[in-house]
């Protein structure tokens, strides 16, 4: 037997905790957003910085593409159209991404139709992620509200129960 086989089995959930809601994990954060543990703050800072650096790299890449259009002596209207298209897509992508951190998924039903706009406007998505990381983990407020609502419902449901009905003593009249 190896030492892995001899590790103690995880304790079973206490009877009163069975059915208790679990917090939803957030990408790159897991469930550390709940109590801000396990390097939550440095992780938030580094992910925001990484998103900012990726946005700067994206701008440099778009600048390189624009310079390529200039070198190929493309007409002015096409270059202007390209800049306007990327600017509009980036602003729409920023607005949609920023809003997605505050609205439940049920209210964002048209999100798949904006996938191509978010792809073209990737700079807006990255900037929204970076700015939101400065406030909280992106999506933390929404997940926290959902988790607290689920906990409240669990507590209300549990407080109404008075035990096993078959064990109750029958009242004599």
TrEMBL record:
<keyword id="KW-0472">Membrane</keyword>
<feature type="region of interest" description="Disordered">
    <location>
        <begin position="153"/>
        <end position="173"/>
    </location>
</feature>
<feature type="transmembrane region" description="Helical">
    <location>
        <begin position="77"/>
        <end position="94"/>
    </location>
</feature>
<keyword id="KW-0812">Transmembrane</keyword>
<protein>
    <submittedName>
        <fullName>Uncharacterized protein</fullName>
    </submittedName>
</protein>
<feature type="transmembrane region" description="Helical">
    <location>
        <begin position="45"/>
        <end position="65"/>
    </location>
</feature>
<feature type="region of interest" description="Disordered">
    <location>
        <begin position="1"/>
        <end position="22"/>
    </location>
</feature>
<keyword id="KW-1133">Transmembrane helix</keyword>
């Amino acid at each position: 037997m190896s030492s892995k086989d001899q590790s103690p089995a995880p304790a079973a959930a206490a009877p009163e905790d069975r059915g208790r809601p679990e917090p939803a994990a957030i990408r790159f954060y897991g469930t550390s957003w709940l109590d801000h543990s396990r390097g939550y703050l440095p992780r938030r800072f580094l992910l925001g910085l990484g998103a900012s650096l990726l946005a700067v790299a994206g701008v440099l890449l778009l600048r390189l593409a624009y310079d390529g259009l200039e070198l190929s002596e493309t007409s002015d209207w096409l270059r202007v159209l390209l800049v306007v298209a990327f600017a509009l897509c980036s602003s729409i992508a920023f607005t949609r991404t920023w809003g997605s951190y505050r609205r439940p998924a049920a209210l964002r039903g048209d999100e798949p139709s904006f996938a191509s706009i978010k792809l073209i406007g990737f700079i807006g998505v990255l900037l929204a992620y970076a700015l939101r990381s400065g406030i909280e983990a992106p999506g933390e407020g929404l997940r926290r509200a959902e988790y607290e609502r689920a906990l409240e419902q669990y507590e209300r449901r549990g407080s109404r129960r008075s035990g096993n009905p078959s064990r109750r003593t029958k009242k004599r009249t």
